[in-house]
Amino acid sequence: MATMKAVAVAMKVMVVGLLLLAYARLMTHAQQCGSHANGTVCAINLCCSQYGYCGLGGDYCRTSCQSGPCYSLCPKQNEILASRGVERFKV
């Protein structure tokens, strides 16, 4: 009887371990992107940096962003201000 319980516990541990490995694989999918990873794109709403990594923020979405919701701070500010009827002046 003890061996049946041991086998059942071992099977449960193995199933949980396999599920954790599968989850880890999903979480690391497409961490590299763009020209560094055969044109792979990042998960939705993530930018592909110039160095081929997925993420958010200026390091990923600004200078030389390869794909995703890339942006350039100054032009976007000017577009927003212009759409509101505000003209930006250089000081």
From TrEMBL:
**Matching Pfam families:** Chitin_bind_1 (PF00187)
Q: Which UniProt keywords are present, listed alphabetically? A: Chitin-binding, Disulfide bond, Lectin, Pyrrolidone carboxylic acid, Signal
Domain named Chitin-binding type-1: residues: 30-72
Matching SUPFAM superfamilies, A to Z? Answer: Plant lectins/antimicrobial peptides
Stretch forming the signal peptide: 1-30
Q: Which GO terms describe its molecular function?
A: carbohydrate binding; chitin binding
The chain's disulfide connectivity reads C33-C48, C42-C54, C47-C61
Annotated Gene3D superfamilies:
Endochitinase-like
Highest taxon of the lineage: Eukaryota
Name of protein: Chitin-binding type-1 domain-containing protein
